[in-house]
Design a protein that fits this description.
With about 190 residues, the chain is α+β, with helices and mostly antiparallel strands. It contains five helices and five strands.
Length: about 190
């Protein structure tokens, strides 16, 4: 039934069912994402730490190889390293890294070391060997390196004796650098 004309009721808009009139329900608040952010930060930090550790291991390996590898880059360098290993450190294994394989005559140098060891045992002294400048000279087979060895004995920190000997070492260049093939007193 229609309300009478001019009545107040007719001016009221028609009512709609409540489901159309209400605003849609607000969605639940989105959960915060700190776990994803934390996981990302931990992944990045772990990756950086692993990369630094691997870089440190690689650098350590390279530095160790450089320090442990014998320097045979030049005739005078190889003679210096050979003298240090054979006469000062008395390390045959290290000295062999600087010598020709299977050839050469180093009997005179071996004799000098034997003499040094006998003097130390017989007289209770410490014998030190040092050398002066290393002079290179080209030869038909490679190069020769000349130097003056100083052989000094001391007991209880007091010098006992000292002598100087001129020596010549023959060196040859191979695939792995220079090597000492012989050593003897100079004429």
């Amino acid at each position: 039934m229609q309300p009478p004309a001019g009545s107040q009721v007719s001016r009221v808009p028609a009512q709609r069912p409540p489901s159309d009139h209400l605003a849609p329900p607000s969605p639940a608040p989105a959960p915060e994402r700190p776990r994803r952010r934390l996981r990302t930060v931990l992944t990045v930090v772990t990756s950086v730490v692993v990369a630094l550790c691997l870089g440190g291991v690689a650098a350590g390996f390279v530095l160790y190889n450089r320090a442990a590898a014998p320097d045979r880059s030049a005739p005078d360098v190889v003679v210096d390293n050979y003298l240090r290993a054979f006469l000062v450190d008395r390390n045959d294994t290290r000295a062999n890294l600087f010598t020709c394989e299977g050839k050469g005559d180093r009997a005179a140098v071996s004799g000098l070391r034997s003499e040094i060891e006998q003097r130390e045992a017989n007289f209770g002294v410490v014998v030190r060997v040092s050398w002066g400048p290393l002079t290179r000279t080209e030869t038909s087979e490679g190069e020769s390196v000349a130097t003056t060895l100083t052989i000094s004995g001391s007991a209880n920190g007091q010098p006992r004796s000292s002598r100087h000997e001129d020596w010549v070492f023959e060196v040859v260049e191979g695939s792995e650098g220079w090597r000492v093939c012989s050593g003897q007193k100079a004429g």
